[in-house]
Every structure is written in structure tokens, then in C-alpha cells.
């Protein structure tokens, strides 16, 4: 990491440690709020979105190696506000879109006035066609992550016999969303589309759109994997801390060797996952042939490891961890959702098998 | 020789009629060991009228006089018909213990009220500082003439928000080794000095409470067995908590549901049930379910022959709960993003508003989350393994 990158990461950690209070987070979840606008603005002001954009778009032009440590922190602090998703995924499509729309949208993502999200990849994406000097789009997007908090969605669509990427303003006529609270405290949404959009809404098409699909969901996997590493570390740290102070049978729980070994296993899994995420980030930044296999490997490894680590964290805490007011179970819940985003581990592994074959 | 086929037919005929759609709905929406309380109580009263609410009780106390096989059939049919789960702390746990240890007056007063559903019991064992190390409990009962004055707190008290009675382990002697100074008290939750605070679980629902006792006066006649004999009473009762449950029935129901979920979840060009990776994982779970079933049958055989399941009940608790958790994982693996929304209102049996997830996914994540507690309550998986190591392996 460069000095600038290290500084951004350190200031992020300081901010989160001093301000990202878990009880306040939960109070907002209980009220049904999908994000804390105060934090959201602070994140944007600290440049977390800007770092994801290239310098020619007035961003910092950080690579994934510099962004992943921040994603880890977000996982570690159970951050719900999807600023990185907005910048790194939706923003990525906008960077490649015609300049006019990019120039209009990207500053908003950077300053936090726009929250753009990307849906699950679908076998049946909405259908977009040219109509009346614009675009007509019909179909539906299900379980859109943070769709209930977003201002925009950047979505793949069926277009002209291939794929297109479409920008949707969620306030537009014919865009109907049903928001709902997810188990991880984020507000998702189903979005039904029967809308007429400006022609500007068509961001990419043809082979560029196909390549973008691969690239966006590759980034989504990496981002989720990095967040997962942070969540695992958080669950492990809490478990170690708790078992050291919790007394049963006249001694700290952490003095039982059976538990020590299990915590050692949690650490092993966390570190293995961290290694793969780091390698995948380097490969993607360098654009090497093995990048996609490493990303798939990282995602599959984090999903399996995080499931185990967060479950073990609950088990070793005991009853306290099954309450909503205690932090550790929220890592478990977040990972339970993240493990099927953007696709399930079994699909990731299937793709890994295919890729490994191609690159060997 | 009982004709079990005829018996099963009788049970089915009864369930067909007695399980109204709202009761079945409550059963279907059950995401933990407890169903919606109102539905559970309604079902309890129906079963009571039929004489079947306490299948394990001897006839003299109001049981139906069924043998072990009949009880198994009844449990299985109830589960498969989506009957709500009954609140088990009274009839399944306290009842058998009172038959063994209770005074004539205690039996006469409490057992009929347990059967009728007038008394809803909860269990006051764990405390904030006494979980796996239960003997470290600190809630004290001080004897003053014919009352015990109880002060302290109990935690993870399931259903305390609905209960009107609690059975408690209390410290009556501080100067002996911990297990020797504990007594077993029956306490009316309406007694002055009791405060009940609900605890919100990870899935967003309230099933547990913390119960606070501040100088609560309990008649000395509410003591079960002798003063300072509470530890052996509690152990007797815990064996009913651990051993009285048949995990195979739950597991079979989970397997059935997962197969259904897989058959309607798209995967590639087909559905998830056709995915060889999923099939393999499901088959492994099915094989473990068969092994569990055969082990439970061995235990049943031993009990029928007059034996005691002993540490095998610990083995079954570990295997049954851990397999249940594995199946919860398989279910979220199948359901995917549809498991994400909380849908708390839609989990209420009477709810008729809009629902954001398909029916087959409604309970999946709540079950996955809630069931993490199954290897913690009723003696953690670690405690069960310690029991096996000590009692079976002699370590």
C-alpha cells in the first residue's frame, strides 16, 4: 500500500472505532432504517467512494489491493452502509458508460448524494428495447441488496439479442419497489419494472456489456470476500476476548484446551481466507490470467470458512451470543446473507472448476 | 399385541379433524422448539379433552396408557401433520419429576393443572454467571418460618413471558460444596417481587426472558424433595429434557422440506434437486439421519426392556442437534437470497398481508439462526461430550 492508501485505511479504522457504535446501529435497525445518513455522509467525505474511481474521473484511482483492507474493516465493524458497493460495482459500470451519464452520476456517488446498487445476476434479467427516443424496460429484480435504501440501480438487461446495462432511477414512473428488512440489518427490495427511460439510461451493450458483467460480479465477489475476512476476524476477536473473561468451573473458558484448539482453528481459517483474498486482489489489479480463478477460490473459501468461524463464535460464547443485543451473532447473520451474494458457493465452485481447466 | 397400523389410523383421523387450518399454519411457521403460544395453548387444550396431552404419563396421572411405540407414532404423526409444538416444560419435564419426587399434595395440586393448561411452566436453571457450570448458581432462598425468601435472577427462561409458574434451582446452603447446597422450588410467577424482562433473540423474536426475584416469599410446601437435594432432582429432570425428545422425527421432517425446496428452486437449466453436488450432500445427511434413527431405536429398545439410556441420551442430543443444524445449512444453501428477508409479521399465524418471500423460504433463515441455540440449551454440546468422556470412556 502507498502512504496515501495506508492513511485512508487508518483514518477509516479510527473513524469506525470512535463512531460506529453497535448499539446505535441496532437502534436504527429496530426503527427500520436501512442506513445511518450521518455515517454515510462521513464515509463519502473521507473519500471511500472516490478511491474506487480512476483519477481521470476525479477519483483516487486505488486498486483492489488498497480497497480490500477497507472492505475488511467494514466487515469487522458490521457496517451496513453500502458505499463501497455503490462506488466499486455500480460506479464501475458508469465509468465505462458514455461520458455524459458518467459525468452526471459519478460525482453524486463520490459525494454520497447517489446510492447506486447492483442486483443479483439473473438468468431472467429485465428486457430493454428501444422505443420512442428512449428505452422501454420490463421485468423484475428480486432481493436487490440495499435496494430499499438506494436511489439508483445499475442492472444487466436483455437488450438487442444480447446484454445491456441499464441505469434506473428508483423514483422514476413505472419503477415499483417493495422494500424489506433483511436479517443482516440492511434493507433489500424487490423491484418491478415497466418503465420508459431516457436513451441515456442505456449504459453499455454488446460485448462491452458482457465483459462488464464478468467484471462487476468479479468485483462483487472480491468485495464480499474481503468483508467476510473482516467479519471472521471480528467474530474470532470477540470469542477470544469473551472466553478469557467468562468464568465457569472456577476458571476462564479460554483455559480449556478443547476450546483453545477450536479458536486456533478459527484463526487458521481466517488467515487462509485472508491469503486468498489478498492474492486475488493482486491478480485482478495486475490483470493476470489466473485472476478469475483466484477470485472464485477466495469467495468459495471465505464462504465456507466464515460459516464455520461465525458458528463456532456463537457456540463458544453460549447463550449470550443468541441474543440480538450482543454483537457476535450479527457477524453470523451478515455472512449467512453474503454467502449467496452474488451467487452461491456451489455455483462459485462450479465456475472455479471450469476456469481452473481453462487456465491450467 | 397392539395393532399399530390401526392405532396410527386413529391418530391420523383425529389429527385430520382436530388440526384446524390456523393450528396447522402455526405448526408450519414454527421456527424453533416453540410454536406461536396462543396456538400451542389451543392445541394443548384440544389434546387434553381427547386425553392425549401427556402421552408419556402413566394412566393413573392422566396419561393415555400408550406403549413406547404408540407414543413414537403419535409424536411422528403430530409432527408430520404440522401440529403446533406444545410448551414442554410442564408435562414433559416437571411432570415426570413430580411423580417421582413430589409430595401427595404437590401431585394432586399441580399435575391436573399441568394437564388442563391452567398452569404454564417455565424453567429457572441458568443464571448470568451459571451456564454450563450450573452448580455455580447464586439465586438464594433463605428460610423464614414456613416460607423461603428468594432473591436473585434466572436467565434464558424460555416462555417466561407467557408462563404463570416457574420451577427453580436455588441456593439454600452456601457453606457446602456447590452441588450440595441447592434446592428445588416451585414458584408462582404472580408472587410479589418477580420481574420478567424479555430477551430479543438473534432472529428478532422473543422466546427467552430474564426473571428477577427480589425477596419473593415462597411457601415452604413448594419445596420439592428435601432441602439441599435440588441437584439430584434437577439431574433427573434434565434427563427428560435431553432424553425425552425424538430427534429422528424432526430430522425426517427437515429432510422432507429440503427435498421440496430443492425441487422448486431453479439451478442451471433444471432445479437444485438435480444438482449432483447437492444430491451428494443431502445423501450424506440422510445417511447420518438413518444412523441417528437406528441409535434412537436402540435406546427405545433398552428403555422398553427396563434399562436406562444413560450417557446415550448425551450422544443423541449431540448428534440430533448437530445434524439438525447441518440440515438448516442445507436449507439456506438451497433457498439462497430468498432466505434473506426477516418477514417477522409473516411468521405470525394470523398474518394475511403481503409477503416478500415465497412460502417455501419463509422460515428458512429464522430456523437456521434460531437453531444455533440447540447445541447450547439443555446442556451444551461441549457438556454432553464431557459427559460421554467421563461416563462412557471413564476419562
Kindly describe this structure:
The complex is a heterodimer of chains A (360) and B (395). With 360 residues, chain A is of the alpha+beta class. Chain A contains eleven helices and ten strands. Chain A folds into three domains: 3-111, Butyryl-Coa Dehydrogenase, subunit A, domain 1, CATH 1.10.540; 116-205, Beta Barrel (Butyryl-CoA Dehydrogenase, subunit A, domain 2); 209-359, Butyryl-CoA Dehydrogenase, subunit A, domain 3 (Up-down Bundle). Chain A is 55% helix and 17% strand. In chain A, strands 1, 2, 3, 4, 5, 6, 7 and 8 form an eight-stranded mixed sheet that branches. In chain A, strands 9-10 form a two-stranded antiparallel ribbon. In chain A, a hairpin with a 2-residue loop joins strand 2 and strand 3 (134-144). In chain A, 55% of the residues are buried. The model of chain A has no long low-confidence stretch (mean pLDDT 96). Chain B folds into three domains: 4-86, no CATH class; 121-230, Beta Barrel (Butyryl-CoA Dehydrogenase, subunit A, domain 2), CATH 2.40.110; 245-392, Butyryl-CoA Dehydrogenase, subunit A, domain 3 (Up-down Bundle). Helix content of chain B is 46%, strand content 15%. Chain B is built from twelve helices and ten strands. In chain B, a hairpin with a 2-residue loop joins strand 9 (266-267) and strand 10. The longest helix of chain B is centred in the C-terminal third of the chain and has 29 residues, at 276-304. The mean pLDDT of chain B is 94. At the A-B interface, strand 6, strand 9, helix 9, helix 10 and helix 11 of A face helix 10 and helix 11 of B.
